[in-house]
């Protein structure tokens, strides 16, 4: 089980003498995908393939897996290198989400598919319900791209406006351009977060403009 929590940065300090969790992550990703696909197929018979793919994309996203990893305290057990530790790696979404997939891979190898399936469903079925009830965390970059392609037949373009701080603790400000309009800047501790923030601003503005205005007349 320790292997599931061993990040590449930790093994690099031992010059390859011990293995990391990347192969378990690869396996866990496949097991996770199968379990979620099967659940959606069996329990949502009225949804088409496109709907199920959209639901799955939210459920197995980095944000979702990161949230579950924190819930079961993977951040307390993950083994990372000193440099990664110094730069806040223990709380990075990508590292925690990858460790979650590696844990699923290890669970599958140690206990078999049925127990791994039960473990996955315990944490992922509530995420599926969140999506169905529209209470999930939105991927605003994807939502914005779909809206912009449909309305303007183009793509959002993200631009770094500013970045401050040392390498281990940078803050980014990023704006998003859609045609002649610019939105943001969004702020984040990395480019992904700042882009999501800018995308949320743009998506909110564009969708609000689509809503009919209420008349002031009684």
Structure description:
The protein is flat. The protein contains 10 helices and 3 strands. The chain folds into 2 domains: 2-132, Ribonuclease III domain (Ribonuclease iii, N-terminal Endonuclease Domain, Chain A, Orthogonal Bundle), CATH 1.10.1520; 140-210, 2-Layer Sandwich (Double Stranded RNA Binding Domain). The protein has a 3-stranded antiparallel beta sheet. 31% of the residues are buried. It is mostly helical and 218 residues long. Strand 2 (171-178) and strand 3 form a beta hairpin. Helix 2 (22-43) packs across helix 7, helix 4 (62-71) crosses helix 7 (93-111) and helix 7 packs antiparallel against helix 8.
Question: What's a quick, concise take on this entry?
Answer:
This protein has 218 residues and is mainly alpha-helical. 59% of the residues lie in helices and 11% in strands. It has a three-stranded antiparallel sheet.
SSE layout and pairings?
Blueprint: H1 8-12, H2 22-43, H3 49-59, H4 62-71, H5 74-77, H6 82-86, H7 93-111, H8 113-132, H9 140-152, E1 157-164, E2 171-178, E3 181-188, H10 191-210
Antiparallel strand pairs: 1-2, 2-3
What's the pLDDT, averaged over the residues?
88
Query: What is the helix fraction of residues, given as a range?
Result: 55-70%
Secondary-structure element series: HHHHHHHHHEEEH
Cα-based radius of gyration, to the nearest Å = 20 Å
Number of domains: 2
Under CATH, the topology of the largest domain is which? Ribonuclease iii, N-terminal Endonuclease Domain, Chain A
Which stretches of 5+ consecutive residues score pLDDT under 50? Answer: 212-218
The shape is flat
Name of the CATH superfamily of the largest domain: Ribonuclease III domain
CATH class annotation of the largest domain = Mainly Alpha
Between the first and last Cα atoms, what is the distance in angstroms? 67 Å
In CATH, the architecture of the largest domain is Orthogonal Bundle
């Amino acid at each position: 089980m320790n292997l599931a929590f061993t990040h590449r940065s930790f093994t690099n300090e031992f010059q390859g003498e011990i293995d990391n969790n990347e192969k378990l992550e690869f396996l866990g990703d496949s097991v996770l995908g199968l379990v979620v696909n099967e659940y959606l197929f069996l329990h949502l018979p009225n949804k088409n393939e496109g709907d199920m793919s959209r639901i799955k994309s939210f459920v197995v996203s980095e944000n979702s897996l990161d949230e579950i990893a924190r819930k079961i305290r993977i951040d307390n057990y993950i083994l990372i290198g000193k440099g990664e530790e110094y730069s806040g790696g223990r709380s990075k979404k990508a590292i925690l989400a990858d460790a979650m997939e590696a844990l699923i891979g290890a669970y599958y190898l140690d206990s078999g598919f049925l127990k791994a399936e039960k473990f996955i469903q315990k944490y992922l079925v509530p995420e599926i319900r969140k999506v169905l009830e529209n209470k999930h965390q939105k991927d605003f970059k994807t939502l914005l791209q779909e809206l912009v392609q449909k309305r303007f037949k183009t793509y959002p373009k993200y631009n770094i406006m500013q970045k401050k701080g040392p390498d281990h603790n940078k803050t980014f400000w990023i704006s998003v351009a859609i045609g002649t309009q610019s939105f943001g800047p969004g702020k984040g501790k990395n480019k992904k977060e700042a882009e999501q923030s800018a995308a949320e601003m743009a998506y909110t503005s564009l969708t609000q403009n689509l809503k009919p205005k209420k008349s002031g007349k009684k």
